[in-house]
Amino acid sequence: MRATVCILLLAACGDTGSPAQPPAWEKSLPDARVIGERWAARGLTAARGIVHLHSPFSHDACDGMPRDKTTNVPNEPCLQDLRAALCTTRIDFAALTDHDGSMADEEFTTLFSMRGSDQAVRNAANEQIGSRILCADGHQVLVSVGGENDLMPIMLDRHPPGTVDERHAIYNGNDAAAADAFRAAGGLVWVAHTESKDLATLRAVAPHGIEVYNLHANIDPDIRSTYLGLPSAGAISAAAEFADTNPGHPEPDLAMLAFLSPNQPAIATWNALLGEGRKLAATAGSDAHQNAIPIMLADGERGDSYRRVLRWFGNIAIVADPHDPAQIEQAMATGRIFTVIEMLGTPANFDVRATDEAGAVYEIGATVPRNSRLTIDVPTVRNLDPDLPAPVIRTRAYWIEPGGNVNELISNTNDQVNLNLGAPGAYRVEISIIPRHLGPYLGDLGTDMASVEVPWIYVSPFYVE
């Protein structure tokens, strides 16, 4: 996100009277395993990940000052902000995706930015493929290296081979040859900013997954107007009111509520590719650089602090061991993941599974026999204070037929949904929410923003052949 995009957030909101004081807002997130409690009976749990994240090895990170101008070393205060945010928000795996300038110029192991008690994570060939941050409270964060240019390789084991100039060329590639080079380097091929990508390119690179939501796209005036069909300044003007520091100000962590909306072109592209028989996982991209809103908000943090942005949403991998990089990578590759906008609440009692006629259970991302049953245990908001207004949670299930027709099979507010998967195609689930429970945190702004239905969870598909 560009620094010029959000500087207008200096504007303040007026005083229209505030509701009763709600419970204290939680600036951190719980351990992700609370999301995966329903999976525990099957020997699985949840790992919370950030997929699309920039460190000081991106040229435009840290307010455009990723390195000290005198020593050329990475911006240590900015890096420490990132590391602290990963611990505070209890991220289990962080897929760094730095731009080729300057990550392609560095030795691969340098890009993990290891400090203090960090541990190197190595493969069977003794290559370092990750690092582990040991947080003060005992939490662990697995850090992997990738890049974001036209394509977004994630969880690489090494740089693609060649000279530094050849590396730059590969990282900037957007064709099958570049995608093959990333796979050969041990990574997964992902695509960011799906809203701006054409189908021909996506077919050629055959990615493992794509972004169906990107924070930058939801904010940037040019992207909003050119690719999303939204008013160019809509996000800025709405979010400006969260810069208020007067008594009765809204909770700054809810600023995303001002501009949160589905990235419909990205979703349409996902549906089109699923209709062609492609198997594609979906993620939401934080695209955090800490370079967009350098002003301090009412909570004493800058508007785009790493902590705030990582608190907003993440990607949940379903694994047996959340500390095992191979399991996380496999879950990403096979689509055993879903995205959740945790600003709206951490989901509890959630599960999505398929069961065949013999009783075998299949996880998200699986190919299942015809006439299997899809079961959705609809989530509730974890630890919701009973004195807060109740949210309205809606489940939608879609069947994308071979050929691309999209059918909404169900849309309801039941606690559990059961569907028959009786025909070939891809089946995916979305959970939306009217976050009325957040209204009291909006202070003088009133509760209107909390009365609008917004996306909460996107689940990667099941497939029937």
Q: Care to describe what's here?
A:
Helix 3 (76-88) packs parallel to helix 12 (306-312). It contains 13 helices and 22 strands. The protein is of the alpha+beta class. 21% of the residues lie in helices and 26% in strands. Strands 1, 2, 3, 4, 5, 10, 11, 15, 18, 19, 21 and 22 form a 12-stranded mixed sheet that branches. The longest helix is centred in the N-terminal third of the chain and has 13 residues, at 76-88. Strand 4 and strand 5 form a beta hairpin. The relative contact order is 0.15. The chain is globular, with a radius of gyration of 21 Å. It has one domain (3-349). Mean pLDDT is 93; it is low at 1-19. The two termini are 40 Å apart.
Mean pLDDT rating: 93
Beginning-to-end CA distance, first to last residue: 40 Å
Number of helical runs? 13
What general outline do the C-alpha atoms trace? globular
Task: Calculate Rg over CA atoms.
Answer: 21 Å
| Oligomer classification | single chain
**Largest sheet descriptor:** 12 strands, mixed
How many β strands by DSSP?
22
Structural class, by secondary structure, is alpha+beta
Hey, roughly how much beta strand do the residues contain?
Answer: 25-35%
Low-confidence stretches: 1-19
Number of domains: 1
- Please estimate the helix content: 10-25%
